[in-house]
Amino acid sequence: MSIPDVQKAWVSVRKGVPSKSLELKTDWPVSKKLQPGQVLVKIQASALNPVGYKTLKLIPDFLGQRPYIPEFDFSGIVVDSNDSKEYSNGDPVYGWIRLDASLKSKQGALAEYIALPQDNIQKRPPNLTPLESAGICLVALTALQTLDRIKLEKDQTILINGGSTAVGQYAIQLAKIRGAKVVATASAKNEQFVRDLGADEFIDYTKVGPLHQYLINNPPSTKYNVIFETVGIFDPSLYTYSKKYLAPNGVFVSVGPQPQGFSLATVSQTLRLGGAVIFPSFLTGIKPSFKISTLSNKVEDMKLLQEYLAQGKIKPKVDSTFAFDDVLQAYEKLMSSRAVGKVTIKVDPSI
Question: Using DSSP, how many helices (H) and how many strands (E) does the chain show?
Answer without folding.
Answer: 14, 15
